[in-house]
Request: fold
Amino acid sequence: MSKDQLKEVALKTERLVESLSHEILSTIRTNGLIAGEALPSARELATRFGVTVPSVREALRRLEATDLVELRHGSGTYVGGSINRRIMDNPYYAPVGSDSIRELYDARIAIEPGIAALAAQARDEEALRRLTLATDHALEHHTEVKVGHFHIELATASGNRALRELLEALLSLYRRAQQTSRVRYDRVQDHREHCEIVDAVRRGDPVEAEHRTKKHLINLKNTALSAEEDDETPHTSI
Reply:
């Protein structure tokens, strides 16, 4: 088979897998399946769509990468937790270097202060309770709670699901920069700044909530960039 023929086969395969991905998502929505519910087996889907089982499995793997489906070994395929998300991150993107870190924090500085202002205007009691609990994680160096947990709860308190999803996507894309800030940033200061943000939200003061959040993020940005510069500086032994 010639090089051009191989390229044509690869292109057809890619188109088939892409089409199958959309067909599977359509099946989920048509049947009203929700996160955690089981899908038909790969063999059943292959028969339904008139394709091979390996093609279906490749489509499922593509969907799994963005948590639209979940493949459980020995159990089957289930609807993933991101099935109703409108904003998603690219699981194949791997940002590195200070420019990427700067972009992350500049984006967050542009977005999150407004999120805090909305949270202060909403003043939802349950969201405030969860936000208050989230402040304690700033004092924990080792925790199973995801990096950025406090900020996700702040976005939840805004009452705007799209903003929460946007922030989650940003945090997921730049997990390394977030982890650097978590390790290097003074934990007591981090906790204090979180508490100040919560206090402004609880008092229903959007201007102060916005100001405190922006100041906090600028501090995190400076810490992450400083750590990145330290990592890139050549070290010589004496």
Q: What stands out?
A: The radius of gyration is 22 Å. Residues 20 and 26 are 10 Å apart (CA to CA).
